[in-house]
Amino acid sequence: MESVLSLAYSLMDRLLPLAFTEPAFMKRALLAVLFVAPAAAAVGVPLIQFRMAFFSDAIGHSAFTGVALGVLLGIHPLLTMVAFGLFVAYAITMVKSRTGLSPDTVIGVFFSTVIALGIAVISARKGLTRNLQAYLYGDLLAISDAEVFWMAALFLAVAAYLFLAFNRILLLGVHEGFARSLGIRGRALEISFSLVVALVVTTAIRAVGILLVTALLVVPAAAARNVAKGAAGAFWTAIVISLLSGVAGIAASYYLDTATGATIVLFTAAFFALTAILRGSLKSGNA
Amino acid sequence: MSRPPPFHTLEIRDLSVRAGGMEILSGIHADIRCGEVTALIGPNGAGKTTLLLAILGLVPYSGTIRFCRAEEHGKGTPRIGYVPQRIDLDRNAPMTVLDFFALSSQRLPVFLGPSRKSRAEAETALHRVGSDHLIGRPLGKLSGGELQRVLLGLALRDDPDILLLDEPVSGVDVSGEELFCDFLDQIHQESRFSLLLVSHDLSVVTRHADRVICLNRSIVCQGATTEVLTPETLSAMYGSGARLFSHRHADGHGHLHGDGNE
Which of A133, A252, B80, B111 supports an S-S bond with A235, CB 3.0-4.6 Å? Predict the structure, then answer.
């Protein structure tokens, strides 16, 4: 395991002989971003088709409680965070289909409940806030080798899932009844997709933090929508934007001494602005 | 070639659908005959779309829906084609017409590009509905009539035994509407699937349907088009204020507007 990473790091020294990639923690951060950012952007493409940005935000905020529970129970917060995120994703999907309430209503209920639970736990135990800082804003530069491996595994899992389910998910997003008339099992797909989103969100929190995690999924996909005409174009544009933003964000944060996660998200936002302007000029050009 | 004797392709017996404590449909007995055009009419909120969804197995229901299949068509469950109301579609998706076809015809994810097979299938299907030129166009940029044809082409791609059309002419201008229906007639002549058509437009129904089912939460009446569309049935279904062809256009095209909101 370690030898794989050191090989990757020495490769990075060869390929990127830049000052900002010299320290080991910068190499780890860069590697982590190369795994997490495209996974988040790829999942983001069907996510915005389903209008699930709010869902992703709710899962992100559930991490607050997940981390607090981990510290309280003496389990590694990363594990409880992911497990709790998956639980909340499943619960939202089930409650939504049981009650027939609109998605934003159900998510709104869960959103506030998980935050309230997190605050209650944290306020009861002094000294917990210190642990939360890293999760609120993300801490890409403090990432461990084990976490880099976790992110690589996530990347592979998302790639495999999308390889198998992408067409069906997209079709479900265009028209549910129509997709189901073609034999697509909507419920199973919806649940599996929610769980994958939860997995990506809770993992990406280590990179950009609870407050910004949704941006990593939504903004590249939204920017891609501005310019892409076809499904493949939108998918790859989102991934390229996420990779460029990730690398540029890390480099810029190194030289400007800004928070890494926030800097990455600012780059995705810049791409969004750029594509929005491009779209505007394309439209007026056509007219 | 003479038509084979009609037999029941779809038997609906004592069908009820409940949602949110409300009975949306109750005690539906109806037959959709093989090779015929059956029109499903009724006011807004009568449960027309719900009945289609029940046939598709997309809403839970009580009662039975039985598919009967002629010996000559072979064994197995019938294929159902479905054309949803075009207004229901997410038209902001970054997706071309070819992508849309590829989503349901290839295993390979569409982000790797449409396969040769799905391109060929899309070309054949679009050719059949006279829309070859639309293959590369973004789905969201199609006009109402163009999108209708694309949806119809996709529904016909897998050679359905039964085709369900939900308000195929809603939101399309009058000339486009007639064109679409004539064209649908022509395809129907060629392929002879059973067609169940939800429509608001009684002129479309009188011109194109063999049989009519009048629905208002339960069956008001059903039978051959000419026998069913009488002032009595229509007032029973839409309320006493309603008249057939309540306004007429110069081209003999009439609408009946039911009251109530969707």
Answer: B111
